[in-house]
Write a structure and sequence with these properties.
Blueprint lengths: L13 H11 L10 H7 L5 E7 L4 H7 L5 H4 L1 E6 L6 H10 L3 H4 L5 E4 L4 E4 L17 H5 L5 H8 L3 E7 L10 E4 L3 H12 L4 E8 L3 H7 L4 H19 L4 E6 L5 E2 L2 E4 L4 H4 L7 E3 L2 E4 L6 H12 L3 E5 H6 L12 H4 L3 E5 L3 E4 L13 E2 L5 H4 E9 L2
Parallel strand pairs: 1-7, 1-8, 5-6, 5-7, 10-15
Antiparallel strand pairs: 2-17, 3-4, 8-17, 9-16, 11-12, 12-14, 13-14
Helix pairs in contact: 1-2, 1-5, 9-11
Length: 384
């Protein structure tokens, strides 16, 4: 199945949502706000809870939950993921109020000349050997950032801010951080924080339903069970948090994948590359030998037809595919000559001498299908 590319709407995405919250507290991200969030914030709630449910695209929400469920009942409108539709890039936009072009955390793994390796930005491992790189966290060292909650707290003496996440998702930068082992614990933390008298802004991230969908597929019964449980717990939580505005969305959706294409199976394409690809399984970032760029484009069309769209660096920058604003100083290093982006069921892989097995996930994201790119905006205010 070949899909028409669904490009990001950078006037209605994570950056705009978080810009609304920032503006409420006098912090200017220099980007447009989200009108529905602006309106909800006029209630001046004591507590604001921004909850990001990983992978919960609009299609996932509608497929698994009944119309009268808590999440669907409070659905306001659709929003857009950013490109690439990955947790790395999108959650950094939630946390900073910046587009990927500005914060530089472009994708799952990128080549860092500072250590001479392709590095998984979150795990701090070599993208191909999957072994740890140097002791310090490379991405956070080379791409430092300021958490939007820090700016809010610095700008408002009477506001406390908190970030809540699983242990593996802890930020090096940011406000007071609390970790949890399961969704129930996360809800308990939110309930406890919202019960105090202080005004606060809470950013919470949960790695499901994404983790479940990677293993079982975006339309599996296991995903249904996971979302029903999340929905039920949020419904209960909302009754226990007075004078609280819940702003719930997702970093991206998921697409059902059935194929893995190993670029190494095409030696003519491999001969045109300067180095192995970076990026992610649904969007390969490719550096091409100068004298073989035209050949590379022909070979992609020959072997893959319409499975992928191929965009040059020039095209990507002209169409603002990574968003707007002043480019991060590392952007020139990170963006290759071309990006090969999936618009069907195929994921990308590239074998090296490490001979790691191909990883077939039943659900994936990072490409430009509607399923990956469209997320929900859910708003629920609990009165005093």
């Amino acid at each position: 199945m070949i899909n028409k590319p669904h490009f990001p709407n950078y006037e209605n995405c994570a950056v705009n949502l978080i810009s609304s919250v920032a503006k409420k507290f006098g912090v200017d991200t220099k980007h447009k706000t989200q009108p529905y969030v602006d309106e909800a914030l006029k209630k001046n709630p004591k507590n604001i809870v921004i909850l990001v449910l990983d992978g919960m695209g609009k299609n996932i929400l509608e497929f698994h939950l009944p119309e009268k469920s808590f999440l669907r009942k409070n659905y306001v409108c659709e929003m857009s993921s950013i490109f690439p539709s990955t947790t790395t890039a999108a959650t950094m936009s939630f946390k900073t109020g910046l587009y990927p072009i500005e914060h530089g955390w472009l994708s799952l793994f990128l080549y860092f000349k500072e250590v001479g390796e392709a590095v998984n930005l979150y795990l701090n491992t070599n993208a191909y050997s999957r072994k740890p790189v140097v002791k310090q966290h490379i991405a956070s060292t080379v791409l430092p950032y300021t958490h939007i909650l820090e700016k809010i707290q610095e700008n408002n003496e009477n506001i406390r801010t908190y970030a809540i996440c699983p242990p593996e998702a802890r930020d090096i930068y940011g406000p007071s951080q609390l970790t949890y082992d399961n969704f129930d614990e996360m809800c308990t933390l939110i309930k406890t924080l919202c019960s105090t008298n202080e005004k606060k802004v809470i950013y919470a991230y949960h790695n499901h339903p994404d983790d479940t969908m990677h293993k079982t597929g975006p339309y599996s019964s296991e995903t249904t069970d996971k979302l029903l449980d999340i929905d039920a717990q949020l419904s209960v939580l909302s009754t226990n948090c007075k004078d609280t505005l819940f702003i719930i969305s997702a970093d991206h959706g998921q697409f059902e994948t059935t194929e893995v294409i190993d670029l190494s199976d095409f030696p003519d394409i491999m001969d045109t590359l300067l180095m192995p690809p970076t990026g992610g399984a649904r969007a390969f970032n490719l550096f091409i030998k100068n004298d073989k760029q035209n050949l590379f484009k022909k070979l992609i069309k020959k072997h893959f037809g319409d499975k992928f769209i191929l965009l040059s660096k020039k095209q990507i920058l002209e169409m603002n595919l990574f968003g707007y604003g002043t480019p991060h100083p590392k952007i020139d290093d990170f963006i290759g000559d071309f990006w090969l982006i999936s618009v069907d069921e195929a994921n990308l892989f590239c074998s090296t001498l490490y001979k790691l097995p191909k990883k077939q996930t039943l659900g994936s994201h990072g490409g430009l299908t509607k399923e990956e790119m469209v997320t929900p905006l859910i708003l629920h205010y609990v009165k005093k």
